[in-house]
Amino acid sequence: MANEDLSKLKIEKTTFSVKPRKRKKIVLAAGVLIGVVVLLVLFSQGVLSPAVEVEAVSVSMTYPSQTFTMLNSSGYVVAQRKAAVASKVTGRIVSLSVEEGNHVKAGQIIARLENDDVIAARDQADANLNATRHSLDQAKAELRDAALTFERNRELLAQEFVSKAEYDASEARYSGAQAAVAAAEAAVNASRAALQGAQVAVEYALIRAPFNAVVLTKNADIGDIVTPIGAAADAKSAVVTIADMDSLQVETDVSESNLYQVKIGQPCEIQLDALPDSRFRGEVHMIVPTADRSKATVMVKVRFVDKDPRILPEMSAKVAFLSREVKPEEQEPRTALNPAAVATRNGKSVIFLIQENRVVETPVKTGLQLGDMVEVQRGVKAGDRIVLKPLDKMKNGLRVKVAEK
């Protein structure tokens, strides 16, 4: 009986198990909870928030002179001294000593034509001149002898030692000798003139630079026939085209209505399309005293204050007519932006820099007012895109979309 009672006291082991359906519900609930948490985190970080449409502007480089520019116009760089160097005679080029870009001095030989015939003519004229000089010397010697004989006979005639006929003959001889000397002198002058003409003809075969310049184009080469008027078949007129680089000026058209803002000697700033990162000091040199009725403009010539070898004829140029000269500290460009793009956060000036469709709140330090722009000394660089508006909705990391214009 006792054993039976003890066996009744044993605890039966039963297996506690969860039903499969209930287990799935628990896993599903946990997954939903985790998803909600992840979504809340993503929304808080702006990952899933809709992109805010913004208007953007770029940071640019601005020159201080733009704040006191009165008028802008465009034109071209033109050499005021330019020449198409040609020959005065027709001939074949046998030597050409320059090419494009070469610097030439006034009087320097650029090319030489065939000149054997004119050299021969010059040598003949030189020989003729020497012959006439010898004839002159002979005539002078004859004149001296005739003069001595004439003087002697005049004294002897007074003493009746010679006849009157002999005296008359010596006088005639003396007069003839004088005439012969005069004729010889005239022949010498004629021969000298002929020699000068022959030397000029030789010089015509040498094509020289008329002034200090740079060769712009080469229009002929060795073997080409050149002629003053270029009328012959296959003949060239100009051998080279040269320009004085010290005479370069910008010729620009100013409308008649704005001409009152332009004065002789007025300071200008010149920008060349070929050198966009450079500004050149200029000065109004001339206002051409005539108007173009078809365009209602007047040509204004602006000279370069500083010479630069990079400036070339026919370059496109923009001219800013200034109200005053540019100071030395104003010659360098400044980084500038639209002041409307600057916001204040916690007492600091900030901008919202756009990087990969998100904004990055960036502190900046502003400087001088440059017209309708403001100088920024640090924080951004030229070319950066920043948010212009709406700034009140911006915060660091916010996803944005730039509005199409």
Short summary:
The protein is of the alpha+beta class and 405 residues long. It is built from four helices and 25 strands. It has helices at residues 2-8, 20-45, 116-158, 164-204; strands spanning 52-58, 60-62, 69-79, 82-86, 91-96, 103-104, 109-113, 206-208, 213-218, 225-226, 235-236, 238-243, 248-255, 267-272, 275-292, 297-304, 316-322, 334-337, 343-345, 348-355, 358-363, 365-370, 373-378, 385-389, 400-402.
Q: Can you put this structure into words, describing what you see?
A:
The chain has 405 residues and is α+β, with helices and mostly antiparallel strands. The chain is built from 4 helices and 25 strands. The protein has helices spanning 2-8, 20-45, 116-158, 164-204, and strands spanning 52-58, 60-62, 69-79, 82-86, 91-96, 103-104, 109-113, 206-208, 213-218, 225-226, 235-236, 238-243, 248-255, 267-272, 275-292, 297-304, 316-322, 334-337, 343-345, 348-355, 358-363, 365-370, 373-378, 385-389, 400-402. It starts with a helix and ends with a strand.
